[in-house]
Amino acid sequence: MPQAHPKALSLPVLLPLILLSALGAVIGMQLLTSLGVTPNTSLIGALLAMVIGRVRIAGLGVFRSVHAQNLAQSAMSAATFGAANSLLLPMGVPWIFGRADLVLPMFAGVSLAMLLDATLLYRMFDTPVFPASGAWPPGVAAAEAIRAGDEGGRQGALLGGSIAVGALGSWLKVPMSAFGTAFIGNVWALTMFGIGLLASGYSQRVIGLSLLANNIPHGIMIGAGLVALVQVFMSVRSGNGAGAEPAGKVPPRAQDSLPRTFGLGAIGYIGIAMIIAVGGGVATELGALRLAAFVVYAAFAAFLHEIIVGLAAMHSGWFPAFAVALITLLIGMLLGFPPVPLALLVGFTAATGPAFADMGYDLKAGFMLRGEGRDPAFERDGRREQFIAAITAFVTAALVVLFSWRGYFVRDLLPPVDRVYVATIRAGVAPGVATTLVLWAIPGALLQWMGGSRRQLGVLLSTGLLIANTSAGWAVLAGIVLRVAAPRFRRTRRRRSSFGQGCTDVDRSIHART
User: Is the Cα dihedral 88, 90, 91, 92 positive or negative?
Assistant: First the structure.
């Protein structure tokens, strides 16, 4: 009898999913406004689901299933990123800009963008563009944690030990997530990521030049991102992988649906950009021709932002969503758009990407837990239920944000990056910025082209340059060194062991003859 996957909309599953989603939304908003970062709450959702599964209430026993736990971690994680990055962050831009009347139009637009984000990744996952065999490190971590919790015993002890080591490392200010990612992702991509983290972090001290202050990483990302977008379209046309070796044969239906998915994304983003522009009252300010240019550019920027964030997230588990949105803002300023449309533009582009990347993490976890596609029908059912759980989480997150955003904003609790966006708009474009972006886009494009779509060298180098975290850089490179050296060390030991055993056998043979 075929295995049945838990249903996200069944009452015993749906009610806990809504509660976990509300909790995740509050956590995301609180940490984004206080610390400026959004945590990945997948593991929290999985652990809470394990606890719920042991509550002796009729129906809750379904959460003893790893697949129900996967739905729980998917929902909580989606709500966290959705509420914080996709909704509250964009809404804060017009508020700081002094246009409180634009907050709700922004909310309406980015809510639709968040749902479109999740839909596009759902349709693209396990295709040549975003293969299920891609690294997606947080997804791997979530799947292994759920497995260990389910198996208990030695696996549970290993999970507990790993959590303890991670907590100790974090307490010592060591970015353990970066160290762990080095053992999962693409070695070439992560090496460039680590180099970028260190180069940007040490540039001021070593050569007396701040790469970030001079917009060098931004130029590199522009060149790499444009080439990456071309590579994505080429992979769609040819059916070749864009990020990793396929987990198996890509289903023809999935391959054929990619052009339709890209078309859906283009039409959807153009429509949402128009809604934001009209709802924000900038249609009359821009005039017909400039309005059309604004809508087309906003849609293109949102789509490019989504692709770049998704590729970086798949390979490294990190994504420079805030920084790439700043790049789209700088280009918009160079194109001459007025301040209010720019505020709407940066909020819209910043909203796309985080939900897209998080959906990839969650689907990777589910893919692993469901046997990595060995039962295609079960995999399709499970993936659909994860999508339903994520949409439920996004709707819940939207309601939480709708009823709580004003309480945050009137107390001046806003995402710190919003102040950067608004300050950039008010300051205007400094002389020479356009030249810098164009010049540094050239090496970014060349590096991305030489590395190819599977290595994403340009995108990952610029990701590291934009994040500029030296501790994470050392952690990533140390993990890569251990990852590369360990197999060679084991092979050397085996050869020495074989050589020693051979010498012992010769000695015994000589001794026997004498």
Answer: positive
User: Which pLDDT value is given to residue 504?
Assistant: 47
Interval 10-60: pLDDT, tens: 999 999 999 999 999 999 999 888 877 777 788 788 888 888 877 777 778
- Gap between the terminal Cα atoms of the chain: 68
d(CA 476, CA 333): 35
Instruction: Of 117, 93, 36, 111, give the one whose Cα is nearest residue 342.
Output: 93
Q: Is 292 helix (H, G, I), strand (E, B) or coil?
A: helix
| Residue-wise DSSP of 129-191 | SB-TTS--HHHHHHHHHHHHHHH-HHHHHHHHHHHHHHHHHHHTT--HHHHHHTTTS-HHHHH
* 93, 416 Cβ separation under 8 angstroms: no
d(CA 409, CA 398): 16
How far CA 258 is from CA of 232, 271, 350, 514, in Å, comes to: 10, 20, 24, 75
- Burial of residue 279 (CB within 10 Å: 0-12, 13-18, 19+) is middle
Burial class (CB in 10 A: 0-12, 13-18, 19+), 431: exposed
Cα torsion through 27, 28, 33, 38, rounded to 10: 120
DSSP string, 440-457: HHHHHHHHHHHHHHHH-H
Residue 72 has pLDDT above 90, yes or no: yes
**Are 340 and 489 contacting, i.e. CB atoms less than 8 angstroms apart?**
no
Residue type, 150: D
Judge contact between 211 and 217, C-beta under 8 A: yes
Whether 390 contacts 101, CB under 8 Å: no
SS (H, E, C) 334-397: HCCCCHHHHHHHHHHHHHCCHHHHHHHHHHHHHHHHCCCCCCHHHHHHHHHHHHHHHHHHHHHH
Which residues 6+ apart lie within 8 Å of 239 measured at CB? 128, 250, 255
Helix or strand run (H / E) with residue 247: none
Per-residue pLDDT tens digits for 399-449: 999 999 999 999 989 988 888 888 888 877 777 888 888 888 899 899 989
| 138 within 8 A of 361, measured Cβ to Cβ | yes
The neighbour count for residue 256, using CB atoms within 10 Å, is 11
**b/e code 182-209 from CB counts within 10 Å (16+ = b):** bbbbbebbbbbbbbbbbbbbebeeeeee
